[in-house]
Amino acid sequence: MQLDGKLVAITGSGRGIGRAMALAFAKKRANLALIDLKAEDLAATKALCEAEGVRAGTYICSVTNEQEVERTLDQVVGDFGRLDVMINNAGITKDALLVKVQDGKVINKMSMDQWRAVIDVNLTGVFLGAREAATRMIALGNGGVIISTSSISRAGNMGQSNYSATKAGVAAMTVVWAKELARYGIRTGAIAPGFTRTEILDAMKPEMIERAISAVPLRRMAEPAEMAHAAVFIAENDYFSGRVVEVDGGQRL
């Protein structure tokens, strides 16, 4: 796909990897539909994209709400007249052990609220974004690409029953959609980031960050722009579909 003049919609584009993706596509001369929950974050991303000379629109939307997703993508198509790439990037973590044991007794458990919140955003949100993007791409008749953010944690990471389950689900859905949507000229792909420098690290203690970095063969965390580069590759390579690109510095879980 030649990206110049195309329309790329990105959830979770207010900051972090989503913002880096938006800027990477803007540098390729693609226009952006920026989707997130915080207006101030979206405004900052929009300014960065427009500085590259492209159009960028902002849309407040909860990816867990079916009606909001439908309404937002209708508005995107109405504003730009097309939808070429949909990136389902929004995600959250609410880590906890399945059961926490002390002195042989269970003293805590992953709560249903922790489970449901992550499932709703990371799995249902990706499903809704892909479904509604595919619906509009088919109606427009120009094909397209649906890219979703998975994680190396999909292999199973301690303390992340909820998160790992969603990211494994994203990888599986990517394969399913590649098989179902190819007849309409729609390709799919997923990115599995490793340990990446984003705002979420602000809450981590320095010793935890050092311990995480020590497990990465390249001995550093990734930059968001390195994840964005993978998204651009998937969009541009017309023979890529149904696969996950791991960008993890050689780390395996």
Describe this structure in words.
This protein is an alpha/beta fold. Helices cover 44% and strands 19% of the residues. The chain has 7 helices and 9 strands. Strands 3-2-1-4-7-8-9 form a 7-stranded parallel β-sheet, with helices on both faces. Strands 5-6 form a two-stranded antiparallel sheet. Helix 1 (16-27) runs parallel beside helix 2 (39-50) and helix 4 packs parallel to helix 5. The longest helix is centred in the middle third of the chain and has 29 residues, at 112-140. The protein is globular, with a radius of gyration of 18 Å. The mean pLDDT is 96.
Alpha-carbon Rg, integer: 18 Å
**Given this structure, which CATH class is correct?**
Alpha Beta
Q: Helix amount, in percent?
A: 40-55%
Beta strands, count:
9
Average pLDDT over all residues: 96
Sum this structure up briefly.
The chain contains 7 helices and 9 strands, in the order βαβαβαβββαβαβααβ. The chain has 253 residues and is an alpha/beta fold.
Topology:
Blueprint: E1 7-11, H1 16-27, E2 31-36, H2 39-50, E3 56-60, H3 66-80, E4 85-88, E5 99-102, E6 105-109, H4 112-140, E7 144-149, H5 161-181, E8 186-193, H6 206-214, H7 224-236, E9 243-247
Parallel strand pairs: 1-2, 1-4, 2-3, 4-7, 7-8, 8-9
Antiparallel strand pairs: 5-6
Helix pairs in contact: 1-2, 1-7, 3-4, 4-5
